[in-house]
Amino acid sequence: EFLKLADNVVFSETEKHLDDLQKAVLRGVWDGQKYSEIAEECYRTEAYVRNLASELWKMFSGILGENIKKSNIISRMRVSCFEIGE
After folding, report:
1. CATH number of the domain bearing residue 67
2. Helix/strand/coil percent split, the chain, to 5
3. Is the pTM of this model over 0.85?
């Protein structure tokens, strides 16, 4: 549900869906994983995953109009979901 909401939010603004790696980062954050754990599961370096996550947070910050980071993405997406009535 969280990934679907995140993808819908991104698609509504960019007309592009999240790619598999972006979804893996979001899934890992949802599951409470560290970047190093996400990186291991995705066969990427931790630095690569951190960079990708940073780009995701910037994208969501622009879309949602507030500062998004790993520690608040889930709660902010829930609020956005409530506000748009999904």
Report:
1. 1.10.10
2. 75, 0, 25
3. yes
